[in-house]
Amino acid sequence: EPYMMLKKIKAGGPILRGNDMYEGYCKDLADAITRLTGIQFLIKPVKDGKYGSPDPTFEGGWNGMVGELVRKEAEIAIAPLTINSQREQVADFTKPFMSLGISIMIKEPIKQRPGVFTFMNPLSMEIWMCVVFAYIGVSIVLFLVSRFSPYEWQIEESISGTTVSNHFSVINSLWFALGAFMQQGIDITPRSISGRIVGGVWWFFSLILISSYTANLAAFLTVDRMVAPIN
Known about the structure:
By secondary structure, this protein is mainly alpha-helical. Helices cover 39% and strands 7% of the residues. The strands form 2 sheets. A two-stranded antiparallel sheet has the order 1-2. Strands 3-4 form a two-stranded antiparallel ribbon.
């Protein structure tokens, strides 16, 4: 019901035979097709009472209505038959006359409050670790390059006498790399060609990383990301 059902016979009423025994939406649809095309039909209920699913025990590999179509025991099946990919491989469907909005209702996920380290979410932990190692590595390379290059050594005259100094100590090398990464800049800059190459590479790396981080952070803070509680 209400697609195909037997008519209720009133007491003392005439005995119904053939197609007159049935009523319902599918029966009315078949009658409308007959009026339009003139094709006559005989309603025959499916033997096993099933719509049709793959079953190797039946001839043709299908049971139900689809199985009778495959075995050519019936020419057409009129029923609230669900259209799926398996059935479309063995049978042709008309345009559906009914659509069901079947969906799953779940509880709305509870939004999590941002924590202290929420700013790290736009990048993965592996990337943050690589950034830390790159920062330390560039600082060490810059310190060693400044030590071996004569252009980084300066002669300073003072009351106590003449001294030779190098501005790129370990602390200053770390401070230079940090200032470049934060896009702030510092007072000291490399004077040698090798030191400028190291600094330029670190500046370019910092520019790309900061730009990517800014874009991901803006999207992370403004767009509500849907966390599906079910898989």
